[in-house]
Amino acid sequence: MTFLRVVAAALFSATIATAVHAQDISLTSHDGKIEVTGTLLGFDGEFYRIDTQFGELTVDGSGVTCDGPACPSLTDFVAEVRFSGSSVMAEKVMPALLIGFADQEGLTMKAGNSAPGTLTYELYRDGRETPLGRFFFNIGNTSKGFTDFTADRADIVMALREIRPGEQEAAEQAGLGDLTRTRRSRVVALNALAPIVAPDNPVPHISPADLALVLSGAINNWSALGGPDAPIALHLPDAQSGLAQGIEDHLLSTATDEPPEHAQRHDRSSDLVLAVANDPFALGIASQAEADAARALPLTGGCGHVLRATRQAIKTEDYPLTFPMFLYLPERRLPRIARQFLAYTQSSDAQMAIRRAGFVDQAPEILGIGLQGDRLANAVASGGSEVGLEELQRMINTLRPMSRLSLSFRFEAGSSRPDAQSRSNIQQLAQLLEAGTLDVQQLVFVGFSDGDGAAAANNRIALLRAKTVRNAVLAAVETAIPERVSLEVDAFGEAMPMACDDTSWGRKVNRRVEVWVR
After folding, report:
1. What does the alpha-carbon distance between residue 205 and residue 309 come to, in Å, rounded to a whole number?
2. N or C: which end of the chain has fewer CB within 10 A?
3. Alpha carbon of 92 to those of 119, 155, 194: distances in Å?
4. What is the mean pLDDT of each run of 10 residues along the chain (518 residues)?
5. What is the reported pTM?
């Protein structure tokens, strides 16, 4: 019936009066009444995707017979899935997830023949000679991933940042759909940018403002950072990589210049880390998950406590240089094994695979009030000047009997729209509530703000953000949540800053909605 609906609409919308050029395949309904010819664009084991004189059609393979030189084998069909993009995802994150997926499905994973710059993995089922699926990974960077995607050289993009407007426009023109929609991307793991130095470098920490000045070349000697009188040897990722573009988005937007020409670029984060670890006067920016050989510098400032790239700080986005690892998907049907794998990436087993691979998973954690000591102390020391003792006491008395959930929500610059990690958190929290797996009776969405403007106005804005997130979570619930669970809102405005308000990143860190439970 799918075949009849799709093809009949195309066939009867035009007369078949023109000559048909030689085509790859012909699909004929089992009763022989309808036939369509075209160039095979893809077959996922269930559906044909063909380019015809009527446009691109998707046809249910169960209702047709295929004839022609491009017809795939139905008995030994091997589903192929092509990934392109981030090298760290291709080399570490995705193989870890594939291993976990194969174990869950009772499959055997083997490395296939790979061309230079690629990795290939095949999944086998016992008793079958040909693989069920073949996964190709083109090792490159985020920008190349989107280029391959729009050129039909990849089915899925591995990205260390959100899609950019030009890439989105190219994807829509290529018929891949609106990739900014919720279902077109998913976060599979979390990571962070970390400023790194050699283990014997004496500098204990660095402020984001100073880091931006180093990256722009305005600071080029360690003495300006409290270190020795020696030039800073700067090491950065390849300019087209998601890491480098993350640096631009998070840090260089506050500086007037681009990185200096003498900065050494590295194609792979692992090479960058090794170079910095072996040079006592080097400073680099690397993936936190790959920084083990070097020493990560904590971030600090005059208005907030020291921020380290710990697992919990990355999950909550309290660490300001956090970034999600995305998969971007086309608006077309992928092979069944690809869909099964993508579903697995959101499972609890996948979160453990992510953690074993050295990255930060998305499994929610409940953080007791005792773990919030630094933040609460900072609230007393650095809270907005208009925040009185009475409001601080109200905050402490409200939060003391509760625990914080590691899912936090922050917003895009100048917008009420949650950022990418927060949109993923909304979906995840909705699923947890719907499934009843979150063993709590009360959730309070607590809004906080930056310190710009009057405290009363900031508190109203923070409360509005808390309501926005709560409503977004409720809207994402597809059935219902248990009646025993209540969802409430509260706000404390600028009472608990995480960073100074004198930078855009600091204001973003402070504008947040936290979830407290009991």
Report:
1. 12
2. N
3. 11, 19, 18
4. 42 32 78 91 85 88 90 85 94 95 96 90 93 95 95 96 93 93 89 94 91 92 96 92 81 68 87 95 92 91 74 87 92 91 94 93 84 62 64 85 92 76 89 88 93 86 93 91 92 82 75 94
5. 0.80
